[in-house]
Amino acid sequence: MTNDRVKVLLIEDSPEDAHVMQDALAAASEPQFEVTWANRLSLGLEQLRGGGMDVILTDLDLPDSRGLNTLAAIRAQTDRHPIVVLTSSDNDQLAIQAVQQGAQDYLVKGYVQVYPSLLLRAMGYAIERNRMAQREKELTGAVAAAALAEGQRAAELDRAYQELKQTQALLVQAEKMAAVGQLASGIAHEVKNPLNIILQSINYLEPELKPEQAQQQEILNVMREAVTAANTIIRGLLDFSKPTPLELKPAPLRGVIEASLVLVRKELDARGIRLAHEIPADLPPVLLDENQMKQVFLNLFLNAIHAMPQGGQLTVRAAVQDLAKPGDGVGKRASDVFRIGDRAVACEVADTGTGIPKELLPKVFTPFFTTKAPGEGVGLGLSITKTLIDGHRGLIQIASEEGRGTTVTLLLRLAPAGGR
Amino acid sequence: MAPSGLMTILAVDDEANSRKLLKLLLEREGFRVITAANGEEALILAKVEQPQVILLDVMMPKLNGYDALRRLREDQDTAAIPVIMVTAKGTEHDIAASFRLGAAFHIEKPYETKDLLQKIQVALRLREQPPQT
Ligand SMILES: Nc1ncnc2c1ncn2[C@@H]1O[C@H](COP(=O)(O)OP(=O)(O)OP(=O)(O)O)[C@@H](O)[C@H]1O
Ligand SMILES: [Mg+2]
Q: Rounded to the nearest whole angstrom, what is the distance from the C-alpha of residue A382 to the centroid of ligand 2?
């Protein structure tokens, strides 16, 4: 999928606007876009009949069609393609109607000129949202078909149903993450205002100090640092609510793990937790974003440490694994992350701590699910971790036994062989 | 025009403490400062007082900053007054909206006062010599 070019049908009568869109799309490298331009609706529909398009980017007002009629005409021809609608003004009402009537997203043209990345992001979202909706539709269809063929097809029905449920669970999870993002940005704004009041107060007091008041100046400096630190956290929260670009590079897993271990060394020692570190030196490089993956391990280590207040053992293991048989996320289904026969690196983080009660296990990836006291945990560690691992097109699994301990297993992609 | 040639700044923010501080800080720099707590008040004050620069928060009750900015631009009496958006909002989207609606600058809270003062100076000059478009 990553190597495939995404084929965009651009329906836009203004050559200038078409240029802006083409330039913005040409700037993308992951994925790359291939644009076919039609300057009126009839030509666009013809292109569409010819096949081979992945996504449609269309102006609503064209020489041969206006407003929502344009959208209706395209939808009448295809319900499979994601559509992103372009509007020239900030006409919210029209945009909302467009989305209600089957467009995946809309963009104001003026924005695109200033921020081409908005277009790329909208295209990515539209494709993804459409993919999920299609998948659900197909599966619902599969359920119906299987129901018709009685008896021997019961097994297939069951499988399709399981998949449907899984896809729905994915959608629900995606929605929850969006909710978290909204909540986070709401809180962030509430906090940035008082932070600014503190910073303005510092700015007011500073010039009023006399040269001999060095201590007072020092205190103002400390306050300013605190404001900066708090703002950094807030910005991080805002960043979490928007997709961060992933920088996947072949890297040694061992180095990343060691960098995260350094950050928790003090806690390990303080609780007398032994560390068993079983990572072969010749482990082949893995495709990863080092910063994100450091955060992943940090989250997992902190959870393990919290689960072992009286000490215990933290084990980190990694090994190449041939995925020989189907399992969660491994197999032939489109939703599977790995194919049978793929080679991956399996990395385990295991503790001998309290474990997680069976009935709570399905909840641990839910944002804000926590069993910890306020101030000790907010319940975002594992949900963020899962988002990051999904971004790596990897898998995360958790197994636990109450009173014995917990093991988190990550399956990560090997860097392609022969790369430099 | 304000008495004795003082430059007048209209500071709009729904937070009373924000307004108080802006007044103190800007008056210390020799400006005359008037304040409004929401977009509606801002429109009236802008028309009557004809400030040289307007500082506009975005998230406010009644009329928010973006709507106020749009209305200021539509009214001939206030269309030429440079507006600086001063807001906790700072995404690409927010910044694009400020500029599209005709703000001279967008400043994200929290900010250092000297940044704001600098932008005010530039905005004042913009008013004297509007950029050719
Ligand atoms: N290694 C573990 N051992 C026992 N329980 C765990 C372990 N990892 C996670 N949990 C359980 O899952 C819950 C959610 O974990 P998660 O990391 O998402 O949030 P948190 O640790 O509570 O807070 P945060 O990570 O945001 O500080 C924890 O509160 C805990 O109940
Ligand atoms: Mg945690």
A: 6
Q: Do B111 and A199 touch (CB under 8 A)?
A: yes
What is B8-112's CATH superfamily?
Answer: Response regulator (3.40.50.2300)
DSSP code per residue over A201-252: HHHHHGGGS-TT-HHHHHHHHHHHHHHHHHHHHHHHHHHHTSPPPP--EEE-
Going from the Cα of A269 to the center of ligand 1, the distance in angstroms, rounded, reads 20
Residue B55 pairs in a beta bridge with B11, B84
Residues of A with Cβ-Cβ distance to B106 under 8 angstroms: none
Higher pLDDT, A194 or A135: A194
Give the integer Cα–Cα distance in Å for A21 and A19. Answer: 5
Residue B76 has pLDDT above 70, yes or no: yes
Tell me which of B1 and A220 has the higher pLDDT: A220
**A90 has a chain B CB within 8 A of its CB:** yes
- With the most atoms of ligand 1 within 8 angstroms of its CB, the residue from A372, A376, A400 to mutate is A372
Nearest CA distance, B67 vs chain A (angstrom): 12
Confirm or reject: Cβ of A305 under 6 Å from ligand 1: no
Note the ipTM here.
0.84
Pocket flag, ligand 1, residue A381 (CB < 6 Å): yes
Domains of chain A from N-terminus onward: 5-149 (3.40.50.2300), 249-413 (3.30.565.10)
B2: pLDDT strictly greater than 50? no
User: Measured between CB atoms, which of B22, B99, B110 is closest to A199?
Assistant: B110
The predicted pLDDT at position A94 comes to: 78
Q: Examine the pLDDT at A418 and tell me if it is beyond 60.
A: no
Please name which of A23, A21, A126, A44 lies closest in space to residue A84, comparing C-alpha atoms: A126
State pTM to two decimals.
0.45
Amino acid present at A332: K
Domain boundaries in chain B?
Answer: 8-112
Nearest CA to ligand 1 atom 11: A364
Measured on CA atoms in the order B41, B43, B46, B47, is the torsion positive or negative? Answer: negative
Mean per-residue pLDDT of chain B: 89
Mean pLDDT of chain A: 83
